[in-house]
Amino acid sequence: MKIAVQADAFDLNAEVEALRSGRLDVGAVASFVGYARDLNDGSAVRAMTLEHYPGMTEKALAAIGEDAARRWTLIDATIIHRVGRLLPGDPIVLVAVASRHRGDAFAACEFIMDYLKTQAPFWKKEETATGARWVEARSSDDAAAARWHPPGSEA
Amino acid sequence: MKIAVQADAFDLNAEVEALRSGRLDVGAVASFVGYARDLNDGSAVRAMTLEHYPGMTEKALAAIGEDAARRWTLIDATIIHRVGRLLPGDPIVLVAVASRHRGDAFAACEFIMDYLKTQAPFWKKEETATGARWVEARSSDDAAAARWHPPGSEA
Amino acid sequence: MNVRLLYFARLRERLGVGEETLAFDGATVAELLAVLRARGGVWAEELAPGRSFRVAVNQELATPDTPLADAAEVAVFPPVTGG
Amino acid sequence: MNVRLLYFARLRERLGVGEETLAFDGATVAELLAVLRARGGVWAEELAPGRSFRVAVNQELATPDTPLADAAEVAVFPPVTGG
Fold it and tell me: Which of A28, B116, C55, D51 would bridge with A105, disulfide CB 3.0–4.6 Å?
């Protein structure tokens, strides 16, 4: 599994090819790229800065990926998250999952994104016309993550 | 929406960039690539040939994409399916969906793949050590498509 | 009236024909299938009720009661296996 | 014992500190939070029970009863907003 936290942009083709290289049993690669938007909560966003918790971030992403690999039959996965200052249109996060069959790849990719949104220590600060503001966590993200593990269902 | 049936390979980066180009409201792109595997139903596969029904194929793919656009809030989508002779490891199909938020992109991308597998007129013929064979449809694919529209639920 | 018939994939190979034009006096897909089955042999076998095949009329998936008009394009093929 | 405290994002800015080392005689996250709240002002406000913040101990998400050992790394931060 590849886990990376980096300031640089990533290359979707290169990451997907590295993920499946030499594995002719890969039938499916589901991938997700999240982008910085130019509008959030009704305000125009000029730029954003992503802060993270070095050390914990990598551990949290690896734990999320390993959890996915226990839940579904996966061949490999890649999780890359950028940090630092980004402009609208810039890619922020890449998750790609390779498996034999598409159901596992889709489910694991969405699961990883939902958990990353609620468990990995990244914070966004947006620059708007009225100044800088920290993005507030969304209850819809907690709800998305909870779909995979209803309260009280398991330890 | 871009729909293409072609013998040539596709470029994932180029397709995703074309899908979101100039749209700074795109927050999410979910994509799926299906590959030819070297093993299917227990036999080594040397190559496969994809046959299709020219005319109906494009209509079926467009209908599947339009159905997805009615069910979820999408910005744009791309569906590309290859035909002709392919080798293990070759990409067969690409579906990419752009939306504001990830839930719509993931759901629509998986929906399109599930419907494509059961509604679009493509057929695979595999070359194995014991000769050529037509791939049989999987009941798991019918089940995957039925998830989105339980029998009797709508017209 | 005349209908244009297309066959694909395993059915094209088994029936030994990719397309044909057929003079036909019925009104539905079910009646057309009965005419084809009456050819006997591999036609009766492959298109027997209960066998797994699909029919499209003018490039839309059809059912036995789908009506046929003159110059309809009717395709008969196995369940699809793309993607 | 000593614990190393880290603050991130909005909390780092509001509290005006990114990290500190604190001599601490309690045993759990809840007791450490009580010590921090006792500083009053913005500390009491931001870390009040019911405010939305998270605590990690040695880089794992923690709960109020998570035990603390000497040299523990304790991070306090707002709900995460990456991805």
Answer: A28
Residues facing B51 on adjacent strands:
B123
All structural domains of chain A, each given as residue ranges with its CATH number in brackets, are 2-129 (3.90.1170.40)
| Contact status, residue B30 vs residue B96, Cβ threshold 8 Å | yes
C82 found inside a domain: no
What's the half-sphere exposure (Cβ side, CA atoms, 13 Å) at B11?
5
pLDDT at A154 over 50: no
pLDDT score, position A155:
43
CA–CA separation, D60 vs B152, rounded Å?
A: 48
Tens digits of residue pLDDT in A65-122: 999 999 999 999 999 999 999 999 999 999 999 999 999 999 999 999 999 999 999 9
Task: Strands of B87-130 (E only): list them.
Answer: 91-99, 122-128
Report CB contact under 8 Å: A123, D9. Answer: yes
The tokens for B76 are: 């744009």
Q: How far is C61 from chain B (nearest CA, A)?
A: 8
Query: C57 lies in which domain range?
Result: 2-77
Instruction: Return the number of CB contacts < 8 Å for A and B.
Output: 90
* Reported confidence tier of residue B150, pLDDT bands at 50, 70, 90: low
Cα–Cα distance list, A130 to A42, A45, A46 (Å): 12, 10, 11
C-alpha dihedral, A143 to D6 to D10 to A139, nearest 10° = 10
* This prediction's pTM: 0.94
In CATH, what number is assigned to the domain containing residue D44?
Answer: 3.10.20.30
Whole-angstrom Cα distance, residue D82 to residue A124?
6
